[in-house]
Write a structure and sequence with these properties.
Elements (H helix, E strand, L loop, with lengths): L3 E5 L4 H12 L3 E5 L7 H12 L5 E3 L6 H8 L4 E4 L6 H6 L1 H22 L4 E7 L11 E3 L4 E3 L16 H21 L3 E6 L1 E3 L11 H11 L4 E3 L5 E6 H13 L1 H4 L3 E4 L6 E3 L4 H9 L6 E3 L8 E2 L4 H7 L7 H14 L8
Parallel strand pairs: 1-2, 1-4, 2-3, 4-5, 5-8, 8-12, 9-11, 10-14, 11-15
Antiparallel strand pairs: 6-7, 11-13
Helix pairs in contact: 1-2, 3-5, 5-6, 7-12
């Protein structure tokens, strides 16, 4: 029997990919999205072409609109909360809007879930930025990357929270509310502290979605600026692997309910943002890529790698798609769809 999924931000990168998966297996889906992100209209068009124009319900509204959210979620079995402001730099420029989108928006989702009386499963896309700069962790600088001196598995969920940047604060507030609504109201909630997710349908821009942005800019001949020295390291995770853990959390909600999981590529799937990714991209492109250099940006971590042993142990999940394979798939999608990008 099909379940009703409410996907906030369902027209975005992660959301549209998950909606596609849900519709493919016959689930009932409502997309709640204000359609403000670049690519949202294209993602909806893609979903309708793949599944039919009436295959899902759409509520075009802001996450701050509680009455609309309450209406959309009144009979939801699962709420996948992906909507929000996504860029650290934007949060610094406009912290109030960032707060309203992320902290207030997440609170609204939880209240809508609580007041529905149905105790829907709530999955929340949090961020590794809740750990802040992690200044107390010793880092070693190498020729092409940074490394942790004493954390071979990466950052665990026990790392103290330190909400550096307005974005870290707003997402972190949501993170803790989601966790607490399980403890206080017995809602089956799960927090995913996600790293760098990438793949098809990602309309990356300079402030967010760096793998997609560099790929798009390189293919379209747009200028690329590297902020800092390009040795910053991230663990990266292909979209299909992320969606697998969403499904596992729903299937194993008896285990996952109330838990917080670091979700990323882990130590096996890491890249420095230009010193290592640049050569991979140049190989796919078949030419050198000129770049400009800029100062470090506020809140930019020298290195972040997720320790994913907890989710592996509790849910049996681990990434399946390698960095090389995932980047190739992203490159091929951008190459085949370069007419979609608003700056082309």
């Amino acid at each position: 029997m099909s379940k009703h999924y409410l996907v906030t931000g369902g027209a975005g990168f992660i959301g549209s990919n998950y909606v596609h998966r849900l519709l493919s297996r016959g689930e009932r889906v409502t997309i709640f999205d204000n359609l403000s992100r670049a690519g949202a209209a294209h993602n909806l068009e893609w979903l309708r072409a793949a599944h039919g124009k009436d295959s899902f319900s759409l509520m075009a509204a802001d996450i701050e609109d509680f009455s609309a959210l309450e209406e959309a979620s009144h009979d939801a079995d699962m709420i996948v909360h992906l909507a929000g402001q996504v860029a650290v730099t934007t949060s610094v420029v406009d912290p109030r809007a960032d707060f309203e989108d992320n902290a207030l928006g997440t609170f609204n989702v939880l209240e809508a879930a609580r007041l529905s009386g149905r105790k829907p499963i709530v999955l929340y896309a949090s961020t590794n930025k809740v750990y802040g700069g992690m200044e107390g962790i010793r880092i070693v600088e190498e020729s092409a990357r940074y490394q942790y001196a004493h954390l071979p598995f990466g950052i665990p969920e026990t790392q103290p929270l330190d909400f550096f940047s307005p974005y870290g604060c707003s997402k972190g507030a949501g993170d803790q509310y989601v966790r607490d609504y399980h403890r206080i109201y017995d809602l089956p909630t799960v927090v995913f502290r996600q790293g760098c997710i990438y793949g098809p349908r990602q309309f990356g821009v300079e402030d967010q979605g760096w793998l997609a942005w560099f790929t798009i800019a390189a293919l379209l001949g747009k200028p690329i600026t590297i902020y800092g020295n390009g040795k910053q390291v991230r663990d990266v995770l292909f979209i299909d692997d992320l969606l697998d853990v969403y499904d596992l959390a729903v299937e194993r909600i008896d285990v996952a309910g109330g838990q917080v999981y670091n979700i990323g590529g882990g130590p096996e799937n890491t890249l420095s943002i230009w010193q290592e990714f640049g050569p991979l991209l140049e190989q796919l492109l078949g030419r050198k890529i000129p770049v400009a250099r800029g100062d470090w940006r506020p809140g930019d971590q020298q290195i972040y790698i997720s320790d994913i042993r907890k989710v592996r142990r509790e849910l049996g999940w681990q990434p399946k798609i390698s960095v090389e394979d995932g980047i190739r798939r992203l490159f091929e999608w951008v190459e085949a769809n370069n007419g979609l990008f608003p700056f082309s």
